[in-house]
C-alpha cells in the first residue's frame, strides 16, 4: 500500500498505529489531465510526505475522520487543498475513505494562464480548507461526485472530448470558488478570456492526441488560419500549438509508462513514444526530461521500485 501510494503521489512516511493490521483500499478511478482516486487504509495511520508537494491535491472525505496539518498549521477540516511547495502531514482513522483529486501543477498553471495571458510565476497557494457550508463549495463537491460517476461509466470511454470538458470544469471551478494567490487577477475572467477558436483547438488536441495531427489540422478544427491560431495560443496559453499538443501527448506517455512498469500494460519506451507520435526518440527523451525531471527509462525504473 505504501509503495503504491508513493508511486501515484509522492514518497512518504507511513506509520500504522496501535499495531493494527492494515486492510487498505486504493482505487484509481481516472488518470488524465487530472486524476481521481479513492484511498483508505483500514487502520489508524499517519502519513507524512518526504518532501514538499509538487502538485495540487484536493482531499474529499467520504467516511471517517482525521487531522490534516499544512505548513505546520492544523487545519479546521480534512476537506482540504494543498499545493506545490507546501509540507503536510495527515492522520486518518480506521474508517476513513477519502476521494482525492490530483491536479498536476502544469494543468493548474495552464488554466490560470488562460486568464492572466501568461503562466503564473509562483504556485497558486489556495486557501487550504474547502468550506462546505458555502453554496459554491457544495456545488463543486457535487461536481466532483458526478465526475466519479462519469468516469466509471461507458460514456467516459466513448467520449474523450466530454471527459476533457469535465476535467476543465473541475479545475476552472476550483479557481473561481477557492481563494488563491491570483484570485484578484483572474476572478470572473475564466469564461471570456479564452477565444472559442483556442478552446476548439485545445479540445481537438485532447480528442485526437494519438493521431498524426499537425497545427494545420488544429487550425482547421478551430476554424481559423494557422497564424491566427499561433497568435491565440501565444496570447492565451503562453505556448505554441505544437508545444501544447506535445504536452498533451507527454501526459499520456507518462501514464502509459507507469502502467507498463506496474504490469498493467505491455510494452516499452519505444512502443509508447511511437504510439503518441514521437518518432525521434532523442528529442522525445529531451522533451520528457524537461517536463518531468527524469528520462522515460527512469520513470520505468522508479515505478518498478514501487510496483
Largest sheet: 5 strands, antiparallel
- Fraction of helical residues: 40-55%
Looking at the structure, what is the overall shape?
A: globular
**SSE pattern, N- to C-terminal:** HEEEEEEEEEEHHHHHHHHHHHH
Distance between the termini: 10 Å
Plain-language structure description:
With 307 residues, this protein is an alpha+beta fold. The chain is built from 13 helices and ten strands. The chain has helices at 2-8, 105-116, 135-151, 154-158, 160-177, 183-186, 196-208, 215-222, 226-237, 241-261, 269-275, 281-292, 296-306, and strands at residues 12-16, 25-31, 35-40, 45-49, 55-63, 66-70, 73-74, 80-82, 88-92, 97-104. The strands form two sheets. The protein has a five-stranded antiparallel beta sheet, with no helix packed on it. Strands 2-3-10-5-8 form a five-stranded antiparallel beta sheet. The protein starts with a helix and ends with a helix. The mean pLDDT is 87.
Map the helices and strands.
Layout: H1 2-8, E1 12-16, E2 25-31, E3 35-40, E4 45-49, E5 55-63, E6 66-70, E7 73-74, E8 80-82, E9 88-92, E10 97-104, H2 105-116, H3 135-151, H4 154-158, H5 160-177, H6 183-186, H7 196-208, H8 215-222, H9 226-237, H10 241-261, H11 269-275, H12 281-292, H13 296-306
Antiparallel strand pairs: 1-4, 2-3, 3-10, 4-9, 5-8, 5-10, 6-7, 6-9
Amino acid at each position: 500500500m505504501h509503495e503504491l501510494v508513493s508511486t501515484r503521489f509522492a514518497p512518504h512516511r507511513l506509520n500504522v498505529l496501535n499495531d493494527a493490521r492494515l486492510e487498505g483500499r486504493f482505487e484509481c478511478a481516472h488518470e488524465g489531465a487530472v486524476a481521481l482516486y479513492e484511498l483508505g487504509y483500514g487502520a489508524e495511520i499517519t502519513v507524512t510526505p518526504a518532501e514538499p508537494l509538487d502538485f495540487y491535491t484536493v482531499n474529499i472525505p467520504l467516511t471517517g475522520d482525521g487531522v490534516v496539518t499544512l505548513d505546520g498549521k492544523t487545519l479546521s477540516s480534512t476537506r482540504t487543498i494543498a499545493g506545490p511547495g507546501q509540507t503536510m502531514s495527515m492522520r486518518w482513522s480506521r474508517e476513513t475513505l477519502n476521494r482525492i483529486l490530483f491536479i498536476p501543477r502544469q494543468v493548474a498553471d495552464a488554466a490560470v494562464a488562460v486568464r492572466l495571458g501568461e503562466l503564473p510565476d509562483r504556485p497558486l497557494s489556495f486557501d487550504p480548507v474547502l468550506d462546505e457550508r458555502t453554496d459554491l463549495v457544495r456545488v463543486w463537491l457535487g461536481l466532483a461526485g458526478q465526475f466519479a460517476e462519469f468516469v466509471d461509466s461507458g460514456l467516459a470511454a466513448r467520449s474523450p472530448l466530454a471527459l476533457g470538458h469535465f476535467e476543465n470544469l473541475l479545475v476552472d471551478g476550483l479557481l473561481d470558488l477557492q481563494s488563491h494567490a491570483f484570485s484578484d487577477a483572474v476572478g470572473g475572467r475564466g469564461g471570456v478570456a479564452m477565444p472559442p477558436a483556442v478552446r476548439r483547438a485545445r479540445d481537438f488536441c485532447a480528442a485526437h492526441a494519438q493521431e498524426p495531427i499537425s497545427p494545420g489540422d488544429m487550425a482547421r478544427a478551430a476554424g481559423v488560419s494557422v497564424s491566427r491560431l499561433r497568435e491565440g495560443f501565444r496570447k492565451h496559453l503562453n505556448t505554441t500549438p505544437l508545444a501544447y499538443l506535445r504536452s498533451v501527448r507527454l501526459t499520456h506517455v507518462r501514464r502509459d509508462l507507469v502502467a507498463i512498469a506496474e504490469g498493467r500494460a505491455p510494452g516499452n519506451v519505444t512502443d509508447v513514444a511511437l504510439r503518441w507520435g514521437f518518432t525521434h526518440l532523442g528529442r522525445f527523451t529531451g522533451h520528457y526530461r524537461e517536463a518531468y525531471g527524469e528520462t522515460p527509462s527512469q520513470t520505468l525504473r522508479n515505478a518498478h521500485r514501487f510496483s
